Amino acid sequence: MLNGVRSLFGLVIYPLQTIASIPTDAGLWLDEQLNSHQSLIIENEAHRSENLLLKAQLQKFTSLQAENIRLRSLLKSSRKLNDQMLIAETIAVDLDPYKRQIVINKGQLNNVYSGQPILDAYGIMGQIIHPGIPSSTAILITDPSHAIPVQINRNGLRTVLYGTGAANYLEVQNLPNNADIEIGDLLISSGLGGRFPEGYPVAVVINIKRDPGQPFAQIIAEASAHLEQSREVLLVMAQENPPQLISEQEQETQPAEGTSSP
Question: At CB < 8 A and 24+ separation, what contacts does 237-242 make?
Fold first, then answer.
């Protein structure tokens, strides 16, 4: 009898106990949800930071990969020459719109000399004009005061390529209208004058204008070297007697070998 009453009493108060426990259970559930949410926020922040770090590292790896490709290209380029090569890095660019010059991080401490040719993995870039102690200034082949002897790779026709002052563009002057030159012709260094190594790409002909009323054709070529992009360059080291540019005073009155008056 007593057990029956106890069971009936338990049945009656069970709903009351369930209702009474709702706030406690709800509090525990809410606390658990808040903790989980906070944990997710912290975890997401950690993942976000890690992702940002990995992206930064990926950019560095991409940069290193590109640098390795450039250096390998330079190494392949240097193997074409019998001369000793020195790798340098561009550290500054002349902002004068009428000049095309760069500064590299090698100088007289590295036996850099005036007139020393510089190349990149794609062709001839220019030559050293002011060798300093720790760094040097180089003139690019597109500088309006620069000229380089070249020949057409297709037929061996020799001519001279002059800088225009415009980025990447050069001009062939004093070539007759009937000269055997075509758009797409590769102009390579002829080696005449002994300043630049023979047989290296200099430019590609991109435009030819022949005016019957003019004795010479107007020929524009685009530099093979990546003059505006190359960061690493090759310096061709002298063998026994390095060629020297004429003095700056003489430069004011006459063009040096490998350069021309503006």
Answer: 237/83, 237/84, 237/85, 237/86, 237/111, 237/116, 238/83, 238/111, 238/113, 238/116, 239/83, 242/113, 242/115, 242/116
Q: Give me 114's structure tokens.
A: 């005036």
Domain ranges of the chain: 1-79, 147-224
CA–CA separation, 69 and 37 (whole Å):
47
Asked whether 253 and 139 are in contact (CB, 8 A), the reply is: no
Mention the CATH class of domain 147-224.
mainly beta
pLDDT, tens only, 63-82: 466 556 656 666 665 555 55
Read off the pTM.
0.64
CA distance 226 to 42: 48
Q: 3-state class of 178 per DSSP? A: coil
**Encoded amino acid at 157, one letter:** L
Write out the H or E segment, with its range, that includes residue 5.
helix 2-79
